[in-house]
Specification:
Elements lengths: L1 H9 L3 H19 L26 E6 L6 H16 L5 H6 L10 H12 L6 E5 L14 E5 L15 H5 L11 E6 L2 E3 L9 E2 L3 E10 L3 E2 L3 E2 L41 H18 L5 E3 L4 E4 H10 L1 H9 L10 H11 L6 E4 L5 E6 L3 H14 L3 E6 L6 H18 L11
Parallel strand pairs: 1-2, 1-4, 2-3, 7-12, 13-14
Antiparallel strand pairs: 4-11, 5-14, 6-7, 7-10, 8-9
Helix pairs in contact: 1-2, 7-10, 11-12
Length: about 425
């Protein structure tokens, strides 16, 4: 087409050449631009950026978010802790999972959105799932963002309020108006480089998932093997919270017992992976399974619906858990491996390279925080996760770490996004 325009222009007389040349130049430039429907992408990349691929599907982005400093949230949380204390069921693990660090808001969402607008502005729409909270800085006049309340996606009102991310995640596919293929992110995920749909999904390869080097455990406490979990027999060697309470095989759970792994970070997260892996060993066969890395996950609603049909009881039980439980059907692990092993029609491509992502756990430790954040600034990997495990009881150390965190945010993403209210 471009050659035809050129021949036509130069076949005319000299008086018309100048004006026709301008017209042809405009046509040529227009034809070089990538045009997308559904307002997926509306800009031309600079020479320093990789050329975007032509999107064949609209893609939305879903966040889950909570503001732990909200007095209403804190009041509901205190009442839940009081109930657990009254029932003598506030184990050390549960107390940790209801700690301040689990719900702290250090403006991660604000800067995550800046990274999206900077590196992934082909996203069609952004949904932020909350318990009714709205970030005070969020520009609700931006037509590309919608707040979704938990009540909008939970079928049973009795399952709310919930403080379990596992419970919420199993319901995000129900968001009204959500695209068939969407990306799920925690608010502490960031893009350090330009990303395209090809980083998550292609028609040929299907869903792309980045895996960590961590292998899901098949043994707990040295004596409890995964094949003993949910085998219909109460195995006392497995009836501890760090061994997923034997998968619920025992009639009574000794809630008063302090877990042997007291102080272990994210105990219920790791234990729920152990439990989910044990279930999948029974359903799909025993095998080595790597744990998905803390990176954005591409999800297809049709696959998710098949997933729910295959494991309705496990998903329902997880949805009813108001706080993280060792018996949770861990979301990313269960969805990803269902797609790999339980969905014969689903295409899937696994990546095991740590060069794609950086994961940093933040503690109330100034030296470690400086070292880790400097590393992130230097490497600027495609996917970044900054997980908050700060002990806020260590007031001075926590304040220093948070200050360093904000300095990192501003260094990486200094430009205010259109999702923020202009002061």
């Amino acid at each position: 087409m471009k050659e035809k325009h050129t021949c036509f222009c130069w076949s005319l007389g000299n008086r018309s050449k100048f004006w026709i040349f301008l017209l042809c130049t405009g046509i040529a430039i227009f034809s070089m631009q990538t045009v997308y429907k559904d307002q997926i992408l509306s800009r031309t990349p600079s020479a320093a950026e990789p050329l975007p691929i032509r999107l064949t599907i609209p893609v939305d982005l879903v966040y889950t978010w909570v503001n732990g400093s909200d007095p209403k949230h804190q009041d509901i949380l205190r009442r839940m802790i009081d109930v657990l204390l009254k029932n003598h069921s506030l184990t050390a693990t549960r107390a940790r999972n209801l700690g301040t660090h689990r719900f702290a808001d250090n403006d991660a969402l604000r800067y995550s959105l800046r990274s999206v607008e900077k590196h992934a502005d082909w996203i069609r729409h952004i949904f932020i799932v909350t318990n009714g909270q709205v970030p005070g800085w969020l520009n609700l006049r931006n037509s590309k963002v919608t707040i979704v309340n938990h009540e909008d996606i939970f079928d049973d009102p009795d399952d709310l309020p919930t403080f379990s991310s596992h419970s919420i995640e199993h319901n995000i596919y129900k968001i009204n108006g959500l695209s068939e293929g969407f990306i799920y992110m925690n608010d502490d995920f960031f893009f350090g480089q330009n990303v395209s749909l090809e980083d998550f999904y292609t028609e040929d390869a299907g869903t792309k998932v980045v895996f960590s080097t961590w292998t899901a455990s098949t043994v707990c406490g040295g004596k409890c093997s995964a094949n003993l979990i949910r085998n219909g027999v109460c195995d006392t060697t497995c009836n501890y919270d760090h061994c997923a309470w034997d998968g619920g095989d025992c009639d009574e759970i000794p809630e008063r017992l302090r877990p042997k792994d007291d102080g272990t970070s994210h105990c219920d997260y790791t234990t729920s992976i152990f439990f989910t892996n044990a279930l999948y060993n029974r359903v799909f066969g025993a095998r080595i399974r790597k744990v998905p890395a803390h990176t954005p996950l591409f999800i297809k609603k049709t696959v998710f619906q098949d997933f729910v049909k295959r494991f309705p009881n496990e998903i329902k039980a997880t949805t009813k858990n108001k706080i993280r439980s060792p018996l949770d059907f861990q979301f990313e692990f269960s969805y990803v491996y269902f797609q790999m092993e339980g969905q014969s029609s689903a295409r899937f491509k696994a990546f095991y390279s740590s060069s794609l992502y950086s994961f940093v756990m933040l503690f109330a430790n100034e030296d470690k925080a400086r070292k880790d954040l400097d590393m992130l600034r230097k490497t600027k990997k495609k996917f970044i996760c900054l997980n908050d495990d700060i002990d806020y009881k260590k007031t001075r150390e926590a304040q220093v770490t948070v200050r360093l965190l904000h300095e990192f945010y501003e260094a990486m993403f200094p430009k205010r996004s259109s999702f923020e209210i202009v002061d």
